[in-house]
Amino acid sequence: MVQTKFILQEKDMPQVWYNIQPDLPVPLPPVLHPGTGKPVTPADMEAIFPMNLIMQEFSPERHIPIPEELLELYKIWRPTPLYRAHRLEKALQTPAKIFYKLEDVSPAGSHKPNTALAQAYYNKQAGIKRISTETGAGQWGSSLAMACKFFDIECKVYMVKVSYNMKPYRRIMMETWGASVVPSPSPDTRIGREILERDPECPGSLGIAISEAVEDAVTHPGTKYALGSVLNHVLLHQTIIGQEAKKQMAMADCYPDIVIGCVGGGSNFGGIAIPFVEDKLNGTHKDTRILAVEPASCPSLTKGLDAYDFGDEAGMTPMMKMFTLGHQFMPPPVHAGGLRYHGMSPLLSHLSRLKLIEATAVQQIETFEAGMQFAQTEGFISAPETNHAIRATIDEALKCRETGEAKTILFCHSGHGHVDMASYDLYLRGKLSNYEYPAELVKEAQKGLPKVNV
Amino acid sequence: MVQTKFILQEKDMPQVWYNIQPDLPVPLPPVLHPGTGKPVTPADMEAIFPMNLIMQEFSPERHIPIPEELLELYKIWRPTPLYRAHRLEKALQTPAKIFYKLEDVSPAGSHKPNTALAQAYYNKQAGIKRISTETGAGQWGSSLAMACKFFDIECKVYMVKVSYNMKPYRRIMMETWGASVVPSPSPDTRIGREILERDPECPGSLGIAISEAVEDAVTHPGTKYALGSVLNHVLLHQTIIGQEAKKQMAMADCYPDIVIGCVGGGSNFGGIAIPFVEDKLNGTHKDTRILAVEPASCPSLTKGLDAYDFGDEAGMTPMMKMFTLGHQFMPPPVHAGGLRYHGMSPLLSHLSRLKLIEATAVQQIETFEAGMQFAQTEGFISAPETNHAIRATIDEALKCRETGEAKTILFCHSGHGHVDMASYDLYLRGKLSNYEYPAELVKEAQKGLPKVNV
């Protein structure tokens, strides 16, 4: 029998998160205060985050221990399995070896609970009673809803309106785990009310929803804000994915030539990639290609400006140096709602700047074609976001068929598509569209980039 | 660290299915031909099933080897994890130890692929090019669709119309795996057309859908029929669940005092229970309670007649001795579509007759309450069918709280509820109903039981 899954036991689970910051050859550019334009201090961020998470955001420690109570909760679904894609390889007639890390097996169906539970834990430690957040497709919101329920914290989710209407199942999941969910823009915040006044039909965006959730945290006592991607501490929590994957690749007696993940804000990609970037930096595996895959219609890494920008639409968050399409850019309504973000994690932007990672952009219909081929060979139905990683994986494997190279490819299967079947329905009926890169809209949005003086 | 999951490696997967027939103290009553009323022969069944599966249906062998090619495919998700429900136990303040076998992790989201793949495999071996089947909630149809795709067999699914309309995501899943799906009753069969003529608004039932699928198989060359529950060979394939669970309970240094599963036709319950019935029969664990849980509105085991009846609405199938509400009984529209069946597996009916298993019936709202408590403690959102097993498990654990007994309870977590969120929405909005046992309708339906002379 050939082995399909590489399975770790609970006792083999990593006990620390890997913080790449001390290993960076050039430190991260400072984060700037939205009011003063000066580098933010931890104290500046206390209005929206608890201090223990802020300290992780700036930590100089290479390894940060995962608290015991959190490890207990990770065991609900971790370690996750690593798969060898035997049947996909055969269908592609490729000499490449394809592996994927299946993060779908969490109760929320994606990698997001890795950080949702961690953030709920640290908020609980800090005495926080209520957390506000935004969500696009709902992967993050549902993960945080579950995490808050486990730690007995109230949870309020601002869900991008177009997703709220298109993905009712995600909304119901959040409510099943006890969260309160409103479509964003909502009448519950000043910013939401202003936008609704200007445009009652506004479909919303992640940028707007972040503005609302941040305002909510700032204006409600005992409430902090939580973000499911972009920030250093979020990617830190996700490094458990790549650390497990390294152990499992060793069980398979392999090391990846290419590591692939889809990127919106960057959390699942960072999670699988950063422990492999560590090996590039320490010289044990210098030549590994690390490939981020984004939607052609929202291509921050491949087409964005490397500039300071806000994380949200209203310009309430600190300014971060990152690849950005402009915080006022409204991405086209692709079904991969989790990838509809104007910016890119500053840490991943930095790795891109240092040429430690590369990026590619793919079109929507092609991602669903890849997802269909994956479902019909490997069985699993994938989230539209994940289909981006599958598309790039198949493309790399097909290149190997041409060149005859037996490369080893590892990708992060970030989530299942069980609640995204309406998107598959459109694909199956030939009603899915591609979206050209909206160059003019981006140019317009980038006019709104903040002026900074560093 | 306490252990949450008990994980087997692929090499630990059972290599045989356990056939209980040779161990039964009293043999199963014969199955009767619908036309002649005489015991059916294997040849009689060849119109709808391939001979290799028919031979399994009647096999006297205790252990039937699982073919190598099938083991390879089982490895897509098997062995499945066994969980200790630490957080649920704590919430219930019970001294009971609760374990569950998580069958959700298959790509189709339930235990059904255990037999779907096996049936597709044997049909392929027999040269069959096309399979017809019925599905209620869609768990079975989607599993067979996936299995047929893996074996390059065409798949036609008759989906009970009320589910077709209420659960579009399941329909889209089947189509994603390449199946053709129609709402039943459909204009594609003579029986469907007749029913539609009498009642164009007929919501359908499993019994009707089975009639259509059987007619389809009989009238299309190269086509056989596949059934996802009820029959001996189906329960045989599912015994891999209980065999794995026994190994995993041993890893946890435990043996269950009570084994629980929900029952419609009986496949997940049979799968987990039968290997434990083996231990009752061979005397190693005589006192294990084995508890089947059914909906109060469709209670074949607890209120049905022990009689010969047809498996389908139109009376096309052989007649089986089973607990039945009458093949013309139309169960109320509970959300656990997979449990809306008039009869009960003849094998499980026989085990009930021999007092080797017991049964209980529960109300719909109470099952969703149980599912909510499970989601909020263990994390996983369960199928409405599975919520029946959770309800009974919680009730047994609460009895332990009263008596102080530290019983060990094992239940089969047969599937996830990701595509059943509309039902949770109704529950959360207080719009879910209970259904009284429809005694008059059952009495009426049972007038239609066939007369037999054995």
Automatic annotation (TrEMBL), chains A, B:
* The keyword Oxidoreductase belongs to this UniProt entry's keyword annotation: no
Q: Which residues carry this modification: N6-(pyridoxal phosphate)lysine?
A: 112
The coenzyme or cofactor needed here is: pyridoxal 5'-phosphate
Q: In which pathway does it act?
A: Amino-acid biosynthesis; L-tryptophan biosynthesis; L-tryptophan from chorismate: step 5/5
Q: Specify the enzyme's EC class, one word.
A: lyase
Q: What SUPFAM superfamilies has UniProt attached to this entry?
A: Tryptophan synthase beta subunit-like PLP-dependent enzymes (SSF53686)
Residues in the signal sequence? none
Query: Gene3D superfamilies given for it?
Result: 3.40.50.1100
Q: Does the keyword Amino-acid biosynthesis apply?
A: yes
Q: Which InterPro entries match?
A: Trp_synth_b-like, Trp_synth_b_CS, Trp_synth_beta, Trp_synth_beta/beta-like, TrpB-like_PALP, TrpB-like_PALP_sf
**Family recorded in the similarity comment:** Belongs to the TrpB family.
What is the protein name for this chain? Tryptophan synthase beta chain
Gene encoding this chain? trpB
